[in-house]
Amino acid sequence: AQKITQTQPGMFVQEKEAVTLDCTYDTSDQSYGLFWYKQPSSGEMIFLIYQGSYDEQNATEGRYSLNFQKARKSANLVISASQLGDSAMYFCAMRRAPSNTGKLIFGQGTTLQVKP
Amino acid sequence: GAGVSQSPSNKVTEKGKDVELRCDPISGHTALYWYRQRLGQGLEFLIYFQGNSAPDKSGLPSDRFSAERTGESVSTLTIQRTQQEDSAVYLCASSFAGTGGLSVAFFGQGTRLTVV
Predict the structure, then answer these.
(1) What angle do CA A100, B107, A110 make, to 5 degrees?
(2) Are strands B31-37 and B19-24 parallel, antiparallel or unpaired?
(3) B43 touches chain A (CB under 8 A)
């Protein structure tokens, strides 16, 4: 069975600093995709970044990067130069690939607060 | 439509009544997901549709919950004999499902259900 674990219920970071949000996963699939979503207080789920299990390079998207360590089964999100608008809940998720079928499962989330 | 649309956005119902929640996915998206999110909590998987069939309904919490999808489009989540513990935000997401390339799940704004 697949499982996502986010061990940090809450994190604080100073504005303009970088922060790493942890995500570990468990799966017996050889091919899978990992996603990070942001959920601000408004409640919408915003897709941030994706990493495929066979991608050799770590994914990057603007200020977001994914530190993918396949052997450790971790997919940590790094946010550089934090902004006040980054304050939100962040979810790590996983789904099998490449057929992109099957349920998308989520971790419990990490609440990030950016301090001015 | 341009995005995933859910209706109603808010629903207040009396304990014991039935409710129907609707999800209109992005056109062409064959995969559709329902999640439940209690206040301050993570996303709890309910059911996954591939086309009009539901290969994974393992997350439905009881037989009071059911869902259907027609025309590989609209989906309805029905909760019968609502209980106070059903109060939550119900989120719907859709994605393309097929080989090749990234398939991001896009979320609707959710239906906030309050059972009084």
Answers:
(1) 90
(2) unpaired
(3) yes
Q: What is the DSSP letter of A53?
A: T
B13 has a pLDDT exceeding 90:
yes
Counting runs of H as helices and runs of E as strands, what totals does chain B give?
0, 11
- What's the token pair of residue A51? 């990493």
A101 pLDDT more than 90:
no
CA angle A3, B35, B27 (to 5 degrees): 110
User: Which residues are CB-contacts of A66 (< 8 A; sequence separation ≥ 6)?
Assistant: A34, A36, A49, A51, A58, A59, A60, A75, A76, A77, A78
Interface check B87 vs A, CB under 8 A = no
Alpha helices by DSSP H, B1-116: none
For chain A, the average pLDDT equals 93
Q: Is the peptide bond before A98 cis (omega within 30 degrees of 0)?
A: yes
- Please tell me the predicted confidence (pLDDT) of residue B99: 59
- CB distance A92 to A27 below 8 Å: no
Q: How far apart are CA B37 and CA B89, in angstroms?
A: 5
Does B28 touch chain A if contact means CB atoms closer than 8 Å? no
Cα-Cα-Cα-Cα dihedral sign, residues B8, A103, B79, B41 = negative
Cβ–Cβ gap B42/A106 under 8 Å: yes
